Amino acid sequence: MNTNHDLPGASRAAALSDGVASTPSGPARSAWQVFKPHETFRDDFTFRNSPEAIRRFPLPFAEDEYMYSVNIEPHVAGPRGSVVEFAFDVDEHYIAECRERELVLAAEPLRYQALPHMLSAQWDCLELIMESLARDYPAHFSLSRDGNRWRWINRPLNIDQSFTFGVPASLPREPLDYITRQAQGDFVVMDQREGDLWTEAGMVTTQADWSLDFDVGMTFKEWHGPVPLAHELGVFDRALKFLLNLRLGQPVRRLNWTMTVNPRLDTSPENYPKWGTDRASVTLQNAGDRVHLRVELQGLWRLPRSNAVLFGIRCYLISLNEIVTIPKWGRRMHRVLKALHPALVDYKGLTRYRDTVVEWLAPYDDGALTTPGGGPE
Amino acid sequence: MSEAQTLTVEVTAIEQITPLIKHFKLAPIAGGSMPAFSGGSHIVVVMKGASRVHRNPYSLLSPPNELGGYEIGVRRMEESRGGSHFMHDEVRVGSLLEIAHPVNLFNLDKIARKHVMIAGGIGITPFMAMLEDLREGPVPYELHYSVRSPEHAAFLSRLNERQAGRFRMYYDSDNRFIDFDGLLSNQPLGTHVYVCGPAGLITRVIDSAQGWGWPDSHIHWEQFSAPPVGDAFDVFLARSKITVHVPPDQSLMESIEAQGVEVPYLCRGGVCGFCQTKVLELDGELIHNDHFLSDAEKARRNTIMPCVSRARCKTLVLDL
């Protein structure tokens, strides 16, 4: 196994040598000052979480058992330092994740797609992401506007771009393609018409086994067709009704989760041969290192000019070894996985290794009561 | 929604543009821009009168790419419960108003091959912004605008200036009426029709389109009902455990809000379905005035839209 942990000192030096370290110019907020640009999410898998990143990990289990619910809440500013402090979370993996996205797109350009009628929604997304990042991380990003003449500076990625808002030719790529190459997580844009939401644009390179290329043009329920149990529970009827009435300026969020063997962001159907067999490689000896909880922080925004809906799917990975550094999480993870509904075990692709993981986690569960909520004790 | 999410705007210009319609310009008090919006959107304006608060929905008619301010048009309603009279009589240049963020319940279909828009009277307002969204685009469109007489033709000069050749006027006073069947029987596949105006106009357009085999998904309409006046009644709110009196000229929603209980809403005009509330007990009749519930749902007597609907009853208990 690879043991090349990124040490904070080493990564700061690496960042400086790349010319990508950011020096805060404004008041110090909780923005990450140190990125780990050389982490990988493939081949040698050098991705690791720092102790600070572990403590802020969004554990999706508020109690010791898990079942679906319409667990949607307002996407308002959360606690300082948490992953929901800001509209779009930028963390220590920012540069590395943007580099990983470039690798995926170079091999498979169709991971980004936008149907022609989604152009105004693309500009909406670009504005929302640029405005949010510049407001929330002034040390890393800035946006200046003079009417439609905009200038965007992304210091971690060394980008300084002047362009005309609304004029596609003034950017090197389509607006959604351009800005989502500079953001962590996947983005899907849904047009609203005929009382439904249609998946008609997106940047999808860090997905849990679904394909934009396959799903583009689908309605909300067609897109979620493969999800077991939830249709019968009426989850999608209620979720769709809720999203059709989603309001401008009042975004919402929810957490979803699965598990992934190795810290691989791109677990796409297109590349199943590259990662599907990893599931058979899990043993009691390597589970702590290889098996990762994969959590999606999903955000939904009404877009102003297009009346479309932006669906952000931000992926966080954490290894079992990292999880059990928080005793409460070791206990809870063990209990949730042990009691998980068989249909969900299958749907989440855990069938091959769930029992091994439960056995690996058992020594970390002393039976003590856990406190409510997903945060550390 | 709650009042905390409103924006404060200043009235920067008022013009009486027809005998019945006033045109208002609203700008952010702090300067800067208003939130961006799409054509077809409306805002709810919160009017704090001396004795009560009015909240009325008005379509945004200003060009969506001009965000220094918003423009709305307000028609004086003969049987107003006070909202339109407040806007006409109390609001001055310099007045401050609270508005909610725009909501679009009447948006253009983005994959339509052609848009046919039909406006009657004050129903022109949402189209003014929608036409701007279409102006630079490749999709063909046309507006048919019907009013009583030339003096009632609001925004005609702006239409002449910005939409020349793309609209046609119809004046009742000249005996010129829209030929719905002629218009709707002869449109290319993929055309969408949009209608806004008096209830009779909307009904005739929908009936004609359906008669010519248009799919429902291609027929769009918006009509905000002003909450009608009616007999007074009392309602008991089961969760808040209070009784609320609803006077003849106040809506159920307004009466509940006046007691400090928040009812979630978007449109306040019986369109969106957001304020749908469970009826727990009823001895009497519900008077449904919304456009959201189906006839079958209304007949079940177990749900109500408090923004526009009322009751004639001895007992009404709501799940609020």
Please provide a brief summary of the model.
By secondary structure, chain A is an alpha+beta fold. Chain A has helices at residues 8-18, 51-55, 94-107, 119-136, 175-180, 212-215, 220-223, 235-244, 272-275, 287-290, 320-323, 327-339, 342-347, 354-361, and strands at 73-74, 112-114, 141-146, 149-154, 159-164, 186-193, 196-203, 252-261, 291-302, 309-319. In chain A, strands 1-8-9-10-6-7-2 form a seven-stranded antiparallel beta sheet. Chain A has a three-stranded antiparallel beta sheet with strand order 3-4-5, covered by helices on one side.
Write the layout of secondary structure elements.
The complex is a heterodimer of chains A (377) and B (320).
Chain A: H1 8-18, H2 51-55, E1 73-74, H3 94-107, E2 112-114, H4 119-136, E3 141-146, E4 149-154, E5 159-164, H5 175-180, E6 186-193, E7 196-203, H6 212-215, H7 220-223, H8 235-244, E8 252-261, H9 272-275, H10 287-290, E9 291-302, E10 309-319, H11 320-323, H12 327-339, H13 342-347, H14 354-361
Antiparallel strand pairs in A: 1-8, 2-7, 3-4, 4-5, 6-7, 6-10, 8-9, 9-10
Helix pairs in contact in A: 12-14
Chain B: E1 7-16, E2 21-28, E3 41-48, E4 53-59, E5 70-75, H1 83-90, E6 96-99, E7 103-104, E8 114-120, H2 124-135, E9 141-147, H3 156-162, E10 167-171, H4 180-184, E11 191-196, H5 199-211, E12 219-222, E13 233-237, E14 242-246, H6 252-258, E15 277-287, H7 295-299, E16 303-304, E17 310-318
Parallel strand pairs in B: 8-9, 8-11, 9-10, 11-12, 13-17
Antiparallel strand pairs in B: 1-2, 1-6, 2-5, 3-4, 3-6, 3-7, 13-14, 15-16, 15-17
